[in-house]
Design brief:
It is a multi-pass membrane protein. The protein has 513 residues and is an alpha+beta fold. Helix content is 51%, strand content 21%. It has three domains: 159 residues, PAS domain (Beta-Lactamase), CATH 3.30.450; 80 residues, 2-Layer Sandwich (Beta-Lactamase); 148 residues, Histidine kinase-like ATPase, C-terminal domain (Heat Shock Protein 90, 2-Layer Sandwich). The longest helix is centred in the first third of the chain and has 48 residues.
């Protein structure tokens, strides 16, 4: 199977190609500029030499002498050698050469442009003459009276210019090679860093991995938060956004505290708005290096509500079972008393418990027309009796059926009563829980008192907002659920010590009617 190139490998090859093209282009440009500079330098040289020769008194006198060639040829050749030019030609105004590096051309006409020089100007051009293509200059030779008595042409062949340029080639090649090596080294270092960051994966593999991970994150039913080392949320899937409401606000306080701590958590209950969430948090590592933490969240709001209702049903069932045993015992006693002929005592024993139960039922049903709440209070009274606790429903209790939704009423009253029953469990008699539910001035008042040890003032806020429990951390969510209902209805709660010991919790909720 052919191994595909990684992103780092592709980037390295692309960088090397681009840098090579840039260096090649830069080198070509540098060569062209160097060639232009060399031609400009050659032009300056030939023009300067030609001006110098044309102003030489020796040349001015020799061009008018009887045999100018004999006098000027040695001078011109010495000048040519000394100035490293390729030819120094001194000629008559009619183009007749007096000097030339090729002696056979002396006396022959000069080939090239001379008209501007005959008019007193200068000629600078690249022209192909007897020695090949050359950069040349032609200037006039003036006599003392200003007449043009001759011309001087000095030139450097193009081949000589190219040779001078070629002598610079090693330096250019060295600079080009150094640039390529530096660029390749930089590209290699960058690709190596990128390879570490991408773990040597290719584009197709990274695309497939992203698609898989994105699909998994959106498919899982648990909320998932990835938090970096600075405590910032780096990733949140759709379920986490839904559970925490991240689109509209910051993290809920309980979740933000857990995230900021960075500690490990296992099945820890946290409150987020109107939800009870179970959080699991773990630190993430790769190659021995900590990356941050991963927090998963499960919605247990419905499960907690169902669990609470199931606990109530289980408690009621156990209470009814116990009462059934007690009823059977009392029935046997009544039958025995009848058999013994003591019918009056049998009647009193049989009707006493019934009267007590009937009075409680009449009081609850007469005061609370909301059927679910009435059934809850009757069930809690049975649980309290089973635990040896007296549950008293205050005679001032009055509540209409439409005051608040049944579920919210059951949440508040049920959890407050459960909390009170737990508070008095194991304490010395008398063990009593009192309940008052009343609708008054557009609000619903729920007051539950107990004879237990009470709730310390420093624990009140934690108990209502974080699911804190005096039994063990993370166990109690009852008062926290009550606090949620209070905040949802814009109500308030108060915890005060009861007369003779214990605590009284008062909750006020705005009526829905």
């Amino acid at each position: 199977m052919t191994r595909r190139w990684s992103i780092a490998g592709q980037l390295f090859a692309l960088q090397v190609l681009v840098v090579s093209l840039l260096v090649a282009g830069g080198t070509a440009g540098a060569v062209l500029l160097a060639r232009d500079d060399a031609e400009d330098a050659a032009t300056d040289i030939v023009l300067a030499v030609a001006e110098t020769v044309s102003h030489s008194p020796y040349v001015v006198d020799a061009v008018s002498a009887p045999d100018p060639a004999a006098r000027l040829q040695p001078y011109a050749e010495a000048t040519r050698v000394a100035t490293h030019t390729d030819f120094v030609v001194i000629m008559a105004p009619d183009r007749t050469r007096f000097t030339h590096p090729t002696t056979s051309l002396i006396g022959k006409p000069f080939s090239g442009t001379i008209e501007p020089a005959l008019r007193g100007g200068q000629v600078v051009e690249t022209f192909t003459g007897s020695l090949g293509e050359s950069v040349r200059a032609v200037v006039p030779v003036r006599a003392a009276d200003g007449r043009i008595t001759g011309l001087v042409s000095v030139g450097i062949t193009t081949e000589a210019v190219n040779q001078r340029l070629l002598r610079q080639a090693p330096a250019v090649a060295l600079a080009t090679g150094a640039a390529l090596l530096l660029a390749a080294a930089g590209a290699w270092l960058l690709s190596r860093r990128l390879r570490r960051q991408t773990h040597g994966l290719g584009p197709a593999e990274m695309t497939r991995m992203y698609e898989y991970y994105d699909g998994v994150l959106h498919a899982v039913r648990e909320g998932l938060l990835v938090v970096d080392l600075k405590g910032r949320v780096a990733l949140a899937n759709d379920e986490a956004k839904r559970l925490l409401g991240l689109g509209d606000a910051d993290l809920p306080p309980a979740v933000a505290e857990l995230v900021a701590s960075g500690r490990n958590a296992e099945d820890e209950p946290v409150l987020a708005g109107g939800r009870v969430l179970v959080a699991n948090q773990r630190a993430t590592h790769f190659a021995g290096r900590r990356l941050g933490t991963v927090l998963t969240l499960r919605d247990h709001t419905e499960l907690r509500a169902l669990t609470g209702e199931l606990d109530s049903v289980r408690g009621l069932t156990e209470a009814l079972r116990a009462q059934a045993h007690e009823a059977a015992n009392r029935l046997h006693t009544v039958l025995t008393l009848v058999e013994l002929g003591r019918t009056d005592e049998a009647v009193r024993l049989a009707t006493a418990e019934l009267a007590i139960a009937q009075r409680l039922t009449d009081r609850v049903v007469g005061a609370v027309t909301e059927p679910a709440l009435a059934a809850l209070l009757l069930g809690k009274s049975a649980q309290a009796a089973e635990r040896g606790v007296e549950l008293v429903v205050d005679e001032e209790s009055r509540l209409d059926e439409a005051a608040l939704p049944s579920r919210d009423l059951i949440t508040v009253v049920g959890n407050l009563v459960d909390n009170a029953l737990e508070a008095v469990a194991g304490t010395d008699p008398p063990r009593r829980v009192t309940v008052l539910v009343r609708q008054d001035d557009g609000e619903v008042l729920v007051r539950v008192g107990d004879t237990g040890p009470g709730l310390p003032a420093e624990h009140v806020t934690d108990a209502f907002r974080r699911g804190w429990s005096t039994k063990r951390e993370g166990r109690g969510l009852g008062l926290a659920l009550v606090g949620q209902v209070v905040r949802r209805y814009g109500g308030q709660y108060d915890v005060a010590p009861a007369d003779g010991g214990g605590a009284v919790i008062t909750v006020r909720l705005r009526s829905a009617s």
